[in-house]
Amino acid sequence: MRSLEETAIWSEGVEGVDVPGYDRAGVRPGIVHIGVGGFHRAHLAMYVDALLTAGEARDWGICGVGVLPADDRMRDVLRAQDGLYTLVRKEADGSLSPRVVGSLVDYLYAPDDPQAVIERIADPATRIVSLTITEGGYAIDQKTGEFDAEFAGIADDLAADVPTGAFGLVVAGLALRRERGTGPLTIMSCDNMQGNGDVARRVFTGYAQLRDADLGVWVAQNVTFPNSMVDRITPATADSDREALAERFGLHDGWPVVCEPFTQWVLEDDFAAGRPEFERVGVQVVDDVVPYEFMKLRLLNATHQALGYLGYLAGHRYVHEVAQDPTFASFLRGYMNDEATPTLRPVPGIDLDAYKDTLIERFANPGVADTLMRINFGSSDRISIFLLPVVREQLAAGGPVDRAAAVVAGWCRYAEGTDEQGQPVAQQDRLADELTALARREREEPLAFLRHRPVFGDLADDERFAGAFRRALESLYTRGAAPTVADLA
Predict the structure, then answer these.
(1) What mean pLDDT is predicted for residues 432-443?
(2) Which pTM value belongs to this model?
(3) CA 280 – CA 285 distance, rounded (Å)
(4) Which of 163, 271, 333, 428 keeps 20 to 30 A from 23, CA to CA?
């Protein structure tokens, strides 16, 4: 069995595994990426690797950065493997298509040496700082949509001689670039949010303004923040994935990445210091990302929420189990057709009916084995971003909201912390304590859950939505998830 760092992999290869055919020693890092997780390694790093394979982008290698204490494991694995990892596409028929990816040419762990991260960002060779720090990782006030100076860690970073958080590190690097005359760069969010570049702009300029008013002006006027729509289902790596790679291919990888075959990236062409020719490897580089964002967030991501809580309550544990259930599939398609699609703008070059068919097919892929627990993670942020904008637009237009209300009711029932068999359900949400308490009060105090204004705003005051929510919740209490879904399918 070969390990990734063994040089024999380059001269002899591993049967059935694609390996980089380029000389990694000649690849210089031009991108600093904060938040090296599964999605980054299945998406941006994969696209850069494809360019390198095509003989392009030799100045656009990636230096990964870990900011959180828990990133120490990623640091250790990537250092032991010289930045290499295996990306494994899981096909619907159960077959695996592995490729060793070589675009991560360096990795810095900020808790070890935050100044090294700042210097790398300030390096003239660095022209893009990219991010996957999750939807809830941005310091945004959920009520106003503006920078939240009270967000965890912001005050400490501003007071520190050397910051350690993502925003502080990047802004410190920008300050050095301004001071040294290096010039601006691009901050490229790859997180799953509508207007992710606009959100990043508000956060980084707001932080820079607090650090130094003149720096804030310089960032606002010079740094660019392209919006993008990113899409690839990337479940958490399981021990069984490592074992399958070893058993089928004789390859040991401490942290491979598994993903579905489908991938999409729609990227606004707004870069301050150049960019790789992403369009050469299938990226849609466009002037306006917004229609594609709405399509993905309100169809794919909101539908993930629609199947996650109700599917779990009905006894399923994997996404494909829910999508293969004809009743659930009909419910999901009904939500997409009747509630989400009317809120979308025209999407150039996209057949929406075909896109929705593809979504159901992707969800039903048993090879991916994506867990409902994973897609239910961070519910308060995901519901707020993916589902509630659809609800508000439909209410304003007089459109149907019954299925979306049932999804929120499913979340409320799920947030109680037990399933329909009385088994405990772990809650993984930054607001878990308060939302679980409200969900448990809901039976005796109707609409207690919906009156959590930081998440739901004034939706509890809307009689039509509140009524649909309560009807669905009463059905969940008395009949269970499967009959409730069947009524709306």
Answers:
(1) 97
(2) 0.84
(3) 10
(4) 271
